[in-house]
Protein: Flagellar biosynthesis regulatory protein FlaF
Organism: Paracoccus siganidrum
Amino acid sequence: MNAVTPFSERAYGSNALRSARDTEYDVFSRVTRLLREASRDGRGRDTIFAVYKNNELWTILATDLADPANALPGEVKAGLISLAIFSLRHGKAVLAGDATIDALIEVNIAVMKGLRGEGAK
């Protein structure tokens, strides 16, 4: 998931001492925090912005995962692409008022646990 590094540097500044996984974790953490805040505040601008940032993150990841140069194992790439598709579709449902933001938060937390080597418990 190398595409997150340029995304995070553009949005959050760079830090040469951090690993790519640390950077990816931080981006997921920031976006998930936006989703949690939007969940507490109800529908409105915060929800639109949080879902937009989540969609942006997952679109960048899916693009990177689909690149033949991506070195992740095929099963991992396929699983993450499936999560990206789900997240993008669910985000659309949230914006339409047909779903809550909770599933987006859960997916992001599962990915964050994977980045930390904890697995999705």
The radius of gyration is 14 Å. The CA atoms of residues 62 and 81 lie 6 Å apart.
